[in-house]
Amino acid sequence: MIVYGRNAVREALRGPRAVARVWALARAAREPWLEAATVTVCGTAAELASLCGSEDHQGVCADVAEFSYADAPALLDRPDPLIVALDQVQDPQNLGAIARTAECAGATGLVIGERRSAEVTAAVCKASAGAVEHLPVARVRNLSDFLGEAKAQGCWCHGAAADAPTAPHAVDLTGSAVLVLGSEGKGLRPRVVASCDTLIALPLLGRIESLNVGAAAAALLYEAVRQRAPAAGT
């Protein structure tokens, strides 16, 4: 996989994946965080774009090992896990943004479906600012089954739905929890809704009827952070 963008490459160098080679424009190659890497200097931005397949490379790209997905049951084995589960979120930019927020918020991991869902690509690495190098991301065949397994292990599954009657601050997010968010257009599928313990909705006080799934994930995650902070002693 050729990852591109300064944050994506920097975090790949800091993360567990093997980095075979780095290419950079002359100015980017002088960045301090590249000092320990073996860098091939490219003469033009177009040359770099041809290597990574994107004009949005910010002067650097790298050949890294394929992304290794985490084991979903292992996420549930962690103490008081906080997991984000996505139901058919297909936009790589949204997946990357959610991964970035989840990693910054200290989430245990991110769970996505194997079908009709975005997967971790170079575009997602870039959109996540390299967060996917540090955040466990698991793929499951059936999200409803995963939620059932989560509940069997003591997790509460909270689904985000625009018409839900309960606000996030009214739900206890201090223990083992899975935050479930749906696709950009249709939201949560009925079977996924049925697998949730509660449905929650962020208050919408303006004229727009919904939030972007990435923004919704950020608000829900940081509500969880707010609730969990006293228990962590912070």
How is the topology of this model organized?
Layout: E1 2-4, H1 6-14, E2 19-25, H2 26-29, E3 39-42, H3 45-52, E4 60-64, H4 72-76, E5 82-87, H5 92-104, E6 109-113, H6 122-127, E7 137-140, H7 143-152, E8 156-160, E9 177-182, H8 190-195, E10 198-200, H9 213-232
Parallel strand pairs: 2-3, 5-6, 5-9, 6-7, 8-9, 8-10
Antiparallel strand pairs: 1-4, 2-4
Helix pairs in contact: 5-9
Quickly describe the structure:
This protein is α/β, with parallel strands linked by helices and 234 residues long.
Strand order, largest beta sheet? 7-6-5-9-8-10
Helical amount among residues, as a percent range? 25-40%
Number of helices, counting only DSSP H or I runs of 4 residues or more? 9
- The low-confidence runs, each spanning 5 or more residues with pLDDT under 50, are none
Shape from CA axes? elongated
- What's the mean pLDDT score? 94
Portion in strands: 15-25%
Query: Mind telling me the C-alpha Rg?
Result: 19 Å
- First-last Cα distance: 38 Å
Secondary-structure content class = alpha/beta
Reported for the largest beta sheet, the result is: 6 strands, parallel
Order of SSEs: EHEHEHEHEHEHEHEEHEH
The number of strands is 10
Describe the structure.
It is a single chain. This protein has helices at 6-14, 26-29, 45-52, 72-76, 92-104, 122-127, 143-152, 190-195, 213-232; strands at residues 2-4, 19-25, 39-42, 60-64, 82-87, 109-113, 137-140, 156-160, 177-182, 198-200. The protein is of the alpha/beta class and 234 residues long. Strands 7-6-5-9-8-10 form a six-stranded parallel β-sheet, sandwiched between helices. A four-stranded mixed β-sheet has the order 1-4-2-3.
